[in-house]
């Protein structure tokens, strides 16, 4: 099988399939074990057979392609695997626009010679109210009817009913008044284009009742194709208008993209303000061929449903669900494994640190809280002992120590003195108390025989009496030093003095020794407690860190365990699913071709859907780059560094500091330029040189911007249909582009006596300008 | 001959005020605090005891402006306590017939000399009462 060049919309598709997009298709196919060329062939078949009366032939082609996937791929290996190349653009040009009873025109015909890139301009001059915008609207209504771009006649996001009502109102008000008053019932627009698939003529007619009311059901659109302008056959079972609209979108431009090619300069800035993201997204999808891909995917799903049902296989939903389930579970498994790997990396240093902390804590010896308490208790007891000992020592210090301190010499001297005085006292008392005994003694002496001489005896007695008296006489004041002590008092003092040393020796040293021991013990205990506190502080620091670390580890470990469990569950779930899948494949291989085709179609449908999900954001990224380039080519200000487009099409202008620019509203001219840049970017990405129709595009711009715009658009290769006010393209700008004008017209308006008047389209620009 | 000129009797000592010089009294208070002794007479007794060990007569007190302590407090109210202190003080003088006034002067002089000696000992064992007490007995008086 080969592609017919003229029919192959893959040309259009290929034109927008960038390397990145194609990579996405290949990637989506690779994971599903699908040949991307087969996918391309299926899309091509869908495009080629979309005008078939029913889908039987399409499905038959699907069967054939899917049955012989390898052979089909080999047959035309490059069908889709060709990235877009420059110079491959397919020029589409407007060749004629004929209106009948359309707005201010009773009848008007605009013809354009074949397009020449060197002379891209078709210039149509017209003063205000002469019908320039009516011509633009004729183009849009002629192409799209009720699907014409929103801004023309209704608010965005309105309901279908409101939209239809607005369309009806727009159509009725477009009907030429004089024609209506003259009883005419038809309004028509006929458009002729040269396209990559050959000539295309579009005829649209609106019918009105006698009262001028629009008969909606009678609206008619007919497509003629080929050199002989044959009517394009409508497949059976398809509404003609719907089929023709699809063909217009496919062969020319989807309505979503129309605002980027056909625009009213007066309203263009609205593009920069409203509906922009939706326009960009829809436009992007259309450009990428997403609708075609999506239709193919839908058809493939329908095909699969049919084939699987035919094969008596399990229900498609089951098949589909299982395929999705396996894909989903595999995706989850990958994610979980990635997370587990990341977790292990996070856990490893945490575990190392935890082990180090535990080791250090273990190395801090002895040191429980109980130990500390015991030490503190011991020290407290020690302090109690010290107090008791100090009191005891103090008591001794007061009672005994001074006597000890006085020293043995003094104590002995006193003792000796007191004993002397005691002896003296005793002798004195004895002498006086025992004088009778002396007398008795002397009497006994005198009677002893032999008797002594009388004088001798008298002298002896005298001498004995004198000795007695002398011996027993008490001492004088000089001798009695401690006179205040007598008898028992002296004895008590003597006792104390003789005992004081031994008393002290018996009691004081043990007390002092005990105190010394206590003091040393106290010092030791204080040292231990200090060490303990030091260790405690370190231990507390380590423990706190360990606690935090343990919590982290626990959390991460918890997550890991949870993930492990989930992984286990996923694997357990995948096991039977894969087994079922394997058996199913075996059954298919064993010769249930319909089943095999059905499931292959499903995989391809998924591949297409994934591609869509991938390519749209890629496209938007490229669009942003293009728009940035266009904007910078068009704008003379250098405020804007770039344009960014988000995944849903939302547009942000970025200044040089990469900040979003909020004050775009500051200049209407700048908004205008911005919208034009977007249009140019989309147009460029469209890959086919569609005509660009601009209605009074320069009105809001200063002279420098006008020159930029004219230069920019004139070099793009597109046919440029410029609807201009005479003050807009005046002699200066006319001179600038004169050599590049293919053909020019001007509108002459005749004011009606009883209405809005009528305009005529005449060849040649305004005489005062061209003169 | 007045009573003050009569040899002292123990009973007189009980109610007699004893003082030392103001400087010695201040040192006495410092020693009391340092050794955490509850009463002023504690360091006073130690001082007098320490001074009595020196056989030379103590220099007379420079003044008698220190705070007084009653005899019964300074030496004890038991007759034996009073007697032993009086005995040692009088024996140290080597004289007989010591009057109350003379005894007061003797106490003032010993107190003053002893308190200085004590202070020197304390400086040697600053902060360590047990060492102070251990070394107090029998150790030569520091210069």
Tell me what the structure shows:
The complex is a heterodimer of chains A (771) and B (143). Chain A is built from 25 helices and 14 strands. By secondary structure, chain A is α/β, with parallel strands linked by helices. Chain B has 143 residues and is an all-alpha fold. Chain B has helices at 10-14, 22-34, 41-52, 71-75, 79-93, 100-124, 129-136; strands at 17-18, 69-70. Chain B has a two-stranded antiparallel sheet. In chain B, helix 2 crosses helix 3 (41-52) and helix 3 crosses helix 6 (100-124). The N and C termini of chain B lie far apart (43 Å). In chain B, 45% of the residues are buried. The model of chain B is unreliable at 139-143 (pLDDT under 50). The chains are: A alpha/beta (771), B mainly alpha (143). Chain A binds chain B through residues 390, 393-394, 397-399, 401-407, 409-411, 413-414, 417-418, 477-485, 489-490, 492-493, 496-497, 504, 508-509, 512, 515-516, 519, and chain B through 7-10, 35-39, 41-42, 45-46, 48-50, 52-53, 55, 76, 79-80, 83-84, 86-88, 90-92, 95-97, 128-131, 133-134, 136-137.
Estimate the strand proportion of chain A.
5-15%
Q: Largest beta sheet of chain B: what is the strand line-up?
A: 1-2
Care to count the β-strands of chain A? 14
Main β-sheet description of chain A: 6 strands, antiparallel
Query: Residue share in helices of chain B?
Result: 55-70%
Could you tell me how far the N terminus lies from the C terminus of chain B, measured between alpha carbons in angstroms? 43 Å
Mean pLDDT of chain A: 78
Helix proportion of chain A: 55-70%
Radius of gyration of chain B: 15 Å
Gyration radius of chain A, rounded: 61 Å
């Amino acid at each position: 099988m080969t592609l017919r060049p003229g029919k192959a919309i893959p040309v259009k598709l290929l034109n927008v399939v960038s390397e990145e997009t194609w990579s996405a298709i290949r990637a989506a196919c690779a994971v599903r074990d699908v040949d991307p060329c087969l996918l391309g062939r299926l899309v091509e078949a869908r495009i080629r057979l979309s005008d078939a009366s029913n889908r039987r032939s399409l499905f038959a082609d699907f069967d054939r392609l899917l049955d012989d996937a390898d052979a089909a791929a080999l047959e035309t290996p490059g069908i889709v695997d060709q990235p877009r190349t420059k110079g491959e653009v397919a020029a589409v040009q407007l060749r004629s626009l004929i209106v009948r009873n359309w707005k201010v025109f009773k009848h008007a015909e605009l013809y354009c010679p074949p397009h020449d890139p060197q002379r891209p301009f078709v210039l149509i001059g017209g003063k205000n109210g002469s019908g320039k915008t009516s011509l633009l609207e004729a183009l849009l209504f002629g192409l799209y009817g009720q699907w014409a771009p929103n801004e023309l006649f209704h608010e965005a996001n309105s309901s279908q009913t409101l939209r239809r009502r607005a369309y009806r109102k727009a159509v009725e008000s477009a009907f030429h008044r004089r024609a209506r008053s003259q009883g005419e019932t038809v309004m028509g627009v006929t458009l002729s284009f040269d396209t990559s698939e050959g000539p295309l003529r579009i005829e649209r007619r609106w019918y009105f009742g006698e009262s001028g009311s629009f008969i909606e059901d009678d609206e008619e659109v007919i497509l003629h194709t080929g050199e002989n302008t044959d009517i394009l056959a409508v497949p059976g079972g398809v509404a003609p208008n719907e089929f023709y609209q699809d063909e217009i979108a496919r062969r020319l431009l989807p309505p979503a993209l129309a605002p980027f090619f056909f625009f009213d300069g007066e309203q263009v800035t609205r593009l920069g303000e409203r509906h922009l993201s939706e326009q960009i997204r829809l436009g992007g999808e259309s450009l990428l061929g997403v609708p075609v891909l999506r239709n193919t995917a839908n058809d493939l799903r329908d095909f699969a449903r049919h084939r699987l049902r035919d094969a008596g296989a399990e229900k498609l939903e089951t098949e589909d669900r299982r395929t999705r389930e396996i894909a989903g579970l595999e995706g989850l498994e990958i994610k979980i494994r990635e997370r587990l790997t990341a977790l292990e990396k996070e856990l490893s240093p945490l575990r190392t640190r935890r082990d180090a902390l535990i080791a250090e804590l273990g190395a801090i010896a002895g040191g429980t809280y109980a130990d500390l308490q015991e030490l503190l208790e011991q020290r407290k007891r020690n302090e109690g002992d010290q107090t008791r000992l100090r009191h005891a020592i103090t008591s001794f210090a007061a009672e005994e120590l001074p006597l000890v301190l006085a020293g043995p010499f003094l104590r002995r001297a006193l003792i000796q003195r007191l004993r002397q005085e005691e002896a003296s006292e005793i002798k004195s008392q004895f002498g006086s108390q025992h004088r009778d005994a002396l007398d008795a003694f002397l009497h006994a002496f005198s009677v002893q025989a032999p008797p002594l001489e009388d004088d001798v005896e008298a002298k002896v007695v005298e001498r004995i009496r004198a000795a007695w008296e002398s011996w027993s006489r008490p001492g004088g004041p000089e001798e009695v030093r401690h006179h205040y002590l007598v008898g028992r008092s002296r004895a008590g003092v003597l006792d104390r003095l003789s005992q004081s040393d031994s008393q002290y020796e018996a009691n004081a040293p043990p007390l002092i020794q005990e105190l010394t021991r206590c003091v040393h013990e106290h010092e030791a205990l204080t040292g231990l407690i200090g060490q303990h506190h030091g260790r405690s502080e370190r231990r507390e620091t380590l423990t706190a860190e360990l606690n935090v670390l343990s919590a982290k580890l626990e959390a991460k470990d918890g997550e890991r365990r949870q993930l492990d469990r989930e992984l286990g569950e996923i694997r357990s779930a995948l096991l039977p699913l894969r087994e079922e899948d394997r058996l199913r494949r075996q059954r298919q291989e064993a010769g249930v071709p319909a089943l095999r085709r059905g499931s292959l179609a499903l995989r391809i449908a998924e591949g297409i859907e994934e591609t869509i999900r991938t390519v749209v954001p890629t496209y938007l990224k490229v669009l942003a780059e293009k728009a940035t380039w266009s904007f910078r080519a068009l704008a003379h200000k250098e405020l804007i560094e770039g344009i960014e487009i988000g995944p849903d099409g939302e547009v942000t202008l970025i200044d040089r500091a990469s900040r979003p620019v909020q004050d775009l509203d500051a200049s209407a001219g700048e908004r205008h330029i911005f919208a034009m840049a977007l249009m140019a970017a989309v147009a460029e990405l469209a890959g086919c040189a569609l005509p660009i129709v601009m209605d009074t595009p320069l009105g809001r711009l200063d002279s420098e911007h006008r020159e930029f715009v004219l230069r920019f658009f004139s070099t793009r290769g597109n046919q440029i249909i410029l609807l201009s006010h005479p003050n807009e393209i005046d002699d200066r700008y006319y001179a600038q582009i004169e050599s590049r004008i293919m053909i020019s017209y001007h509108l002459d308006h005749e004011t009606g006596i009883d209405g809005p008047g009528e305009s005529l389209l005449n060849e040649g620009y305004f005489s005062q300008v061209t003169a | 001959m007045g009573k003050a000129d009569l040899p002292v009797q123990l009973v007189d000592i009980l109610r007699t005020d004893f003082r030392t010089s103001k400087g010695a009294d201040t040192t006495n208070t410092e020693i009391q605090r340092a050794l955490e002794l509850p009463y002023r007479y504690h360091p006073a007794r130690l001082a007098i005891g320490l001074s009595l060990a020196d056989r030379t007569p103590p220099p007379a007190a420079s003044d008698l402006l220190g705070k007084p302590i009653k005899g019964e407090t300074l030496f004890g109210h038991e007759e034996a306590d009073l007697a032993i202190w009086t005995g040692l003080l009088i024996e140290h003088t080597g004289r007989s017939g010591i009057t109350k006034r003379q005894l007061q002067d003797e106490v003032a002089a010993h107190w003053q000399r002893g308190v200085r000696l004590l202070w020197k000992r304390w400086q040697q064992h600053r902060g360590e009462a047990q060492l102070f007490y251990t070394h107090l007995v029998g150790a030569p008086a520091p210069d």
